[in-house]
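User: Could you check the structure of this?
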Amino acid sequence: MSEPGSIIRTLAGRPVARNFHTYVINEVGRAIVSGQIKVGGILPGDSEMMERFGVSRTVLREALKTLEAKGLVEARAKVGTRVLPVSRWSYFDRQVLEWVLESGPSAGFLESFHLVRLRLEVDAARLAALHRDGEHIRLLHYWLNQCDKMGRQPEPFALALFEFHRILAEASGNPFLRAANAVMEFGVAVTVSARLTPGGDAPPEGLAQGRTAAYAALLLAVETGDADQAAARMETVLAAG
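Assistant: Sure, the predicted C-alpha coordinates are below.
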Protein backbone atom coordinates (compact mmCIF):
# COMPACT_ATOMS: atom_id res chain seq x y z
CA MET A 1 0.00 0.00 0.00
CA SER A 2 2.78 2.47 0.91
CA GLU A 3 6.25 2.20 -0.56
CA PRO A 4 9.55 2.64 1.29
CA GLY A 5 10.27 6.35 1.71
CA SER A 6 6.59 7.32 1.85
CA ILE A 7 6.70 8.28 5.54
CA ILE A 8 9.53 10.75 4.89
CA ARG A 9 7.95 12.13 1.70
CA THR A 10 4.57 12.60 3.40
CA LEU A 11 6.14 14.46 6.32
CA ALA A 12 8.03 16.65 3.86
CA GLY A 13 4.73 17.59 2.20
CA ARG A 14 5.30 15.46 -0.89
CA PRO A 15 3.04 12.39 -0.51
CA VAL A 16 2.97 9.66 -3.15
CA ALA A 17 0.19 9.81 -5.74
CA ARG A 18 -3.02 8.12 -4.63
CA ASN A 19 -6.00 6.66 -6.50
CA PHE A 20 -9.60 6.68 -5.20
CA HIS A 21 -9.03 3.51 -3.19
CA THR A 22 -5.96 4.81 -1.39
CA TYR A 23 -7.58 8.24 -1.02
CA VAL A 24 -10.42 6.76 1.04
CA ILE A 25 -7.99 4.64 3.08
CA ASN A 26 -5.85 7.68 3.82
CA GLU A 27 -8.72 9.98 4.75
CA VAL A 28 -10.47 7.51 7.06
CA GLY A 29 -7.22 6.12 8.50
CA ARG A 30 -5.87 9.58 9.29
CA ALA A 31 -9.16 10.58 10.92
CA ILE A 32 -9.06 7.50 13.15
CA VAL A 33 -5.41 7.79 14.18
CA SER A 34 -5.69 11.54 14.84
CA GLY A 35 -8.73 10.97 17.06
CA GLN A 36 -11.24 12.76 14.82
CA ILE A 37 -13.11 9.45 14.71
CA LYS A 38 -13.06 8.05 18.23
CA VAL A 39 -12.12 4.52 19.26
CA GLY A 40 -15.31 2.51 19.70
CA GLY A 41 -17.23 4.77 17.34
CA ILE A 42 -19.21 3.50 14.36
CA LEU A 43 -18.32 4.81 10.91
CA PRO A 44 -21.09 6.43 8.84
CA GLY A 45 -23.10 4.13 6.57
CA ASP A 46 -22.02 3.22 3.05
CA SER A 47 -24.31 5.73 1.31
CA GLU A 48 -23.03 8.66 3.36
CA MET A 49 -19.37 7.71 2.88
CA MET A 50 -19.84 7.06 -0.85
CA GLU A 51 -21.28 10.56 -1.23
CA ARG A 52 -18.62 12.16 0.96
CA PHE A 53 -15.68 10.64 -0.93
CA GLY A 54 -17.29 10.41 -4.36
CA VAL A 55 -16.54 6.71 -4.78
CA SER A 56 -18.46 3.56 -5.65
CA ARG A 57 -19.60 0.98 -3.12
CA THR A 58 -16.94 -1.42 -4.42
CA VAL A 59 -14.12 1.09 -3.84
CA LEU A 60 -15.46 1.94 -0.38
CA ARG A 61 -15.79 -1.70 0.68
CA GLU A 62 -12.26 -2.52 -0.52
CA ALA A 63 -10.88 0.48 1.36
CA LEU A 64 -12.62 -0.59 4.56
CA LYS A 65 -11.26 -4.12 4.15
CA THR A 66 -7.76 -2.65 3.93
CA LEU A 67 -8.32 -0.63 7.11
CA GLU A 68 -9.62 -3.79 8.78
CA ALA A 69 -6.40 -5.60 7.80
CA LYS A 70 -4.45 -2.77 9.48
CA GLY A 71 -6.37 -3.40 12.70
CA LEU A 72 -8.14 -0.03 12.72
CA VAL A 73 -11.74 -1.14 12.14
CA GLU A 74 -13.97 -4.18 12.32
CA ALA A 75 -17.17 -4.74 10.33
CA ARG A 76 -20.07 -6.46 12.08
CA ALA A 77 -23.44 -7.43 10.67
CA LYS A 78 -26.32 -5.24 11.94
CA VAL A 79 -23.82 -3.06 13.84
CA GLY A 80 -21.67 -1.43 11.18
CA THR A 81 -17.95 -0.72 10.97
CA ARG A 82 -16.52 -0.02 14.42
CA VAL A 83 -13.19 1.66 15.24
CA LEU A 84 -11.01 -0.80 17.16
CA PRO A 85 -8.95 -0.10 20.30
CA VAL A 86 -5.44 1.28 19.82
CA SER A 87 -4.04 -2.05 21.06
CA ARG A 88 -5.31 -3.67 17.84
CA TRP A 89 -3.65 -1.23 15.44
CA SER A 90 -0.84 -2.57 13.28
CA TYR A 91 2.11 -0.37 14.21
CA PHE A 92 4.47 -2.22 11.88
CA ASP A 93 2.36 -0.99 8.95
CA ARG A 94 4.04 1.87 7.09
CA GLN A 95 0.78 3.73 6.42
CA VAL A 96 -0.34 3.55 10.05
CA LEU A 97 3.03 5.00 11.05
CA GLU A 98 2.55 7.79 8.49
CA TRP A 99 -0.73 8.75 10.16
CA VAL A 100 0.81 8.59 13.63
CA LEU A 101 3.62 10.93 12.57
CA GLU A 102 1.21 13.34 10.88
CA SER A 103 -1.01 13.51 13.97
CA GLY A 104 1.93 13.98 16.36
CA PRO A 105 2.99 10.94 18.39
CA SER A 106 2.79 11.22 22.17
CA ALA A 107 5.86 11.02 24.41
CA GLY A 108 4.67 7.63 25.64
CA PHE A 109 4.32 6.31 22.11
CA LEU A 110 7.82 7.49 21.19
CA GLU A 111 9.29 5.90 24.30
CA SER A 112 7.69 2.56 23.41
CA PHE A 113 8.81 2.94 19.81
CA HIS A 114 12.44 3.65 20.71
CA LEU A 115 12.61 0.50 22.86
CA VAL A 116 11.48 -1.63 19.91
CA ARG A 117 13.71 0.20 17.44
CA LEU A 118 16.75 -0.27 19.66
CA ARG A 119 16.17 -4.01 19.84
CA LEU A 120 15.60 -4.40 16.10
CA GLU A 121 18.41 -2.18 14.84
CA VAL A 122 21.08 -3.40 17.25
CA ASP A 123 20.34 -6.98 16.24
CA ALA A 124 20.32 -5.95 12.57
CA ALA A 125 23.78 -4.41 12.93
CA ARG A 126 25.13 -7.46 14.75
CA LEU A 127 23.81 -9.87 12.10
CA ALA A 128 24.88 -7.63 9.22
CA ALA A 129 28.48 -7.85 10.43
CA LEU A 130 28.22 -11.63 10.14
CA HIS A 131 26.28 -11.96 6.87
CA ARG A 132 27.06 -8.88 4.75
CA ASP A 133 28.54 -9.29 1.29
CA GLY A 134 30.48 -6.99 -0.99
CA GLU A 135 27.37 -5.45 -2.54
CA HIS A 136 25.94 -4.60 0.87
CA ILE A 137 29.18 -2.86 1.85
CA ARG A 138 29.26 -0.95 -1.43
CA LEU A 139 25.70 0.29 -0.92
CA LEU A 140 26.32 1.24 2.71
CA HIS A 141 29.33 3.33 1.67
CA TYR A 142 27.26 4.92 -1.11
CA TRP A 143 24.36 5.92 1.14
CA LEU A 144 26.64 7.20 3.90
CA ASN A 145 28.38 9.34 1.30
CA GLN A 146 24.98 10.62 0.13
CA CYS A 147 24.10 11.56 3.71
CA ASP A 148 27.27 13.61 3.88
CA LYS A 149 26.51 15.34 0.57
CA MET A 150 22.84 16.02 1.36
CA GLY A 151 23.38 17.38 4.87
CA ARG A 152 21.77 20.73 4.02
CA GLN A 153 18.73 19.21 2.26
CA PRO A 154 16.43 17.61 4.86
CA GLU A 155 14.34 15.32 2.65
CA PRO A 156 17.18 13.85 0.51
CA PHE A 157 19.27 13.50 3.68
CA ALA A 158 16.50 11.61 5.49
CA LEU A 159 15.89 9.32 2.51
CA ALA A 160 19.61 8.52 2.24
CA LEU A 161 19.81 7.84 5.98
CA PHE A 162 16.80 5.51 5.75
CA GLU A 163 18.42 3.64 2.84
CA PHE A 164 21.51 3.07 5.00
CA HIS A 165 19.37 1.50 7.72
CA ARG A 166 17.35 -0.49 5.17
CA ILE A 167 20.46 -1.95 3.51
CA LEU A 168 21.82 -2.86 6.94
CA ALA A 169 18.62 -4.81 7.63
CA GLU A 170 18.92 -6.48 4.22
CA ALA A 171 22.49 -7.48 5.06
CA SER A 172 21.34 -9.13 8.30
CA GLY A 173 19.87 -12.02 6.33
CA ASN A 174 16.89 -12.07 8.72
CA PRO A 175 13.55 -11.81 6.85
CA PHE A 176 11.77 -10.34 9.87
CA LEU A 177 14.32 -7.55 10.23
CA ARG A 178 14.05 -6.87 6.50
CA ALA A 179 10.27 -6.63 6.84
CA ALA A 180 10.58 -4.13 9.70
CA ASN A 181 11.98 -1.37 7.48
CA ALA A 182 8.88 0.79 8.11
CA VAL A 183 9.94 0.99 11.76
CA MET A 184 13.41 2.06 10.67
CA GLU A 185 12.00 4.72 8.34
CA PHE A 186 9.73 6.04 11.09
CA GLY A 187 12.78 6.30 13.35
CA VAL A 188 14.68 8.36 10.78
CA ALA A 189 11.64 10.57 10.18
CA VAL A 190 11.24 11.23 13.91
CA THR A 191 14.94 12.08 14.20
CA VAL A 192 14.79 14.83 11.58
CA SER A 193 11.06 15.63 11.72
CA ALA A 194 11.49 19.29 12.69
CA ARG A 195 13.62 19.81 9.57
CA LEU A 196 11.42 17.72 7.24
CA THR A 197 8.16 19.58 7.62
CA PRO A 198 7.43 22.22 4.96
CA GLY A 199 9.40 25.35 5.81
CA GLY A 200 11.91 23.46 7.92
CA ASP A 201 15.56 24.04 7.09
CA ALA A 202 18.78 22.26 7.92
CA PRO A 203 20.90 23.90 10.63
CA PRO A 204 23.86 25.97 9.37
CA GLU A 205 26.31 23.14 10.06
CA GLY A 206 24.15 20.64 8.15
CA LEU A 207 22.21 17.57 9.29
CA ALA A 208 25.20 15.28 8.77
CA GLN A 209 27.21 17.17 11.39
CA GLY A 210 27.82 14.90 14.37
CA ARG A 211 26.25 11.89 12.65
CA THR A 212 28.70 10.93 9.91
CA ALA A 213 31.50 9.88 12.26
CA ALA A 214 29.19 7.63 14.30
CA TYR A 215 27.79 6.01 11.16
CA ALA A 216 31.29 5.60 9.70
CA ALA A 217 32.37 3.73 12.84
CA LEU A 218 29.29 1.51 12.55
CA LEU A 219 30.04 0.79 8.91
CA LEU A 220 33.67 -0.07 9.70
CA ALA A 221 32.54 -2.60 12.31
CA VAL A 222 30.11 -4.19 9.84
CA GLU A 223 32.69 -4.22 7.05
CA THR A 224 35.34 -5.89 9.23
CA GLY A 225 32.86 -8.46 10.55
CA ASP A 226 33.03 -7.36 14.20
CA ALA A 227 29.50 -8.22 15.35
CA ASP A 228 29.82 -7.04 18.96
CA GLN A 229 31.38 -3.74 17.90
CA ALA A 230 28.69 -3.25 15.24
CA ALA A 231 25.98 -3.72 17.87
CA ALA A 232 27.69 -1.26 20.21
CA ARG A 233 28.14 1.30 17.43
CA MET A 234 24.46 1.05 16.51
CA GLU A 235 23.55 1.75 20.13
CA THR A 236 25.72 4.87 19.93
CA VAL A 237 24.06 5.96 16.68
CA LEU A 238 20.55 5.57 18.10
CA ALA A 239 21.42 7.25 21.39
CA ALA A 240 22.65 10.31 19.47
CA GLY A 241 19.31 10.59 17.64
